[in-house]
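Late entry, iron/sulfur cluster complex.
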Amino acid sequence: MSKVTVEVDSYRCRWCEACVEMCPDIFYHDESSGHAAANSDAVEITNDLQTTATMCPSRCIELLEIEDRSQ
Ligand code: SF4
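Prediction complete; structure with ligand written out below:
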């Protein structure tokens, strides 16, 4: 499975909470911005994560694939 880093464009996020409900281990409420944010760790891309990024009503979740340098 490939790994990605997750970024949220907090300027476009409308804080519907969907991402936090779908993937609470990755997304959280950033008190300072009042919007969603994502942990900076690389994570395995899962169906839930892909669905969350696709379903975000603001389309402000970006999954950045990490190049596999082991080959
Ligand atoms: S699903 Fe999108 S709009 Fe909703 S809180 Fe998460 S990043 Fe913000």
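The CA atoms of residues 49 and 58 lie 15 Å apart. Will revisit in the morning.
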